[in-house]
Model the fold of this input.
Amino acid sequence: MLSEASVEGFLLLKVRYFNGKAEFCYDISAKQKMSDWFKAKKLNNTELRNILLNFCEALDSAEDYMLDVSHIILNPDYIFLDMDKCSVFLCYCPLYKEDIIRTGQEFLQYLLEVLDYNDKPAVEMGYEVFRLCMKNGFGIDIIKNSLADKQAEIVEETETWNSVVPVSVMKEEVEDEYEKPIIPYL
Done:
């Protein structure tokens, strides 16, 4: 299926035969291995959200095309990033077969290892998604719901922060000001 049609979120696959054996070739043009990318830098909140959302979209696409998810390689050496487009590309290999729940949990654990621990929202989101997937089993619905809940918290905190000024701050500003003459416009 992947050799005949492009499936969103997956590397384009070409099957070639050499000496009677099938070889799987993937198009990785303009992409970098996730493991190489995060050797040089740490994963921030925006990147984590994009990776998880793209990851969920790719797994949704796999379901749409009736691809067996146990053939998806979730090793960071086989997951590719196009950081210009903020896209994740997974590798589907018909000869590979692993338990998606176990490999998905290992993938989330890897993301925790490369997090920027100075980015508090990234740490909170990463550990929340990991905790839920360890507790309830790995699944894209769990990840999507966790991301939606975390986004709602951020919006709520922002709205609260923007709409309410503590009385102590208002009092300090009033006490520090002095009376300024008002000059009317002529």
Summary: Strands lie at 13-18, 21-26, 32-33, 72-73, 80-82, 87-89, 91-92. Confidence is low (pLDDT under 50) at residues 155-186. Residues 44 and 116 are 6 Å apart (CA to CA).
